[in-house]
Design goal:
Layout (H helix, E strand, L loop, with lengths): L1 E5 L5 E8 L3 E7 L2 E7 L8 E7 L3 E2 L3 H8 L11 E11 L4 E10 L2 E16 L5 E12 L18 E15 L2
Antiparallel strand pairs: 1-4, 1-11, 2-3, 2-11, 3-6, 4-5, 5-7, 7-8, 8-9, 9-10, 10-11
Length: 175
């Protein structure tokens, strides 16, 4: 078995959600940690655990960030972490994989399949083995108790129900 730790300096976790039907708001989580276990130097059969600090949520707007951390959405005081656990990986092609995962938000756990585009495995200048991939998925925020909503005069919602999850991650193999 090979153990891998995320390289936080070369990784990011973000999300996108429609705002007032006409635009998209992007945000990120600036603090997270992840470990991965593999049988070989590839993504097949990987086990991945990621913990995301809700308090590190950043949409570049303090008012919105505080609202998202409140009980209307994440209830960050009571539920400080989002957890993602990948226990099965399905290879679709040399670059395309499905990460069969459980995601826990606000104390609610649901299965989710995340698409992963495998970037490959390389040796860095110091001889460390690195693996990278891009993650893309979608959840319905209301499935996790993030129910706050307001209706616009024209009938649309202020915040869409579907939230796109994105990640660009790089892992370093441990000696």
């Amino acid at each position: 078995m090979a153990n891998w730790n995320i390289d936080k300096a070369h990784s990011e976790v973000s999300f996108k959600v429609k705002h007032m039907v006409i635009s998209t708001v992007s945000g990120s989580f600036d603090s997270f940690d992840s470990k991965m276990e593999t049988e070989n130097d590839n993504l097949e059969n990987a086990k991945i655990a990621m913990d995301i600090d809700v308090q590190s949520l950043n949409t570049k707007n303090d008012y919105r960030d505080n609202h998202l951390k409140s009980n209307d959405f994440f209830a960050a005081e009571e539920h400080p972490q989002i957890k993602i656990a990948v226990d099965k990986v399905t290879k679709k092609s040399d670059e395309d994989y499905i990460l069969h995962s459980l995601i826990t938000i606000r104390g609610t756990q649901k299965p989710i399949d995340l698409k992963a585009e495998f970037g490959g495995v390389v040796k860095d200048m110091d001889g460390n083995t690195r693996m990278g991939f891009t993650i893309d998925g979608k959840i319905n925020r209301k499935d996790f108790g993030l129910n706050w909503s307001a209706t616009l005069e024209a009938g649309g919602m202020v915040v869409a129900d579907d939230v796109r999850l994105l990640g660009d991650v790089e892992f370093v193999k441990q000696a």
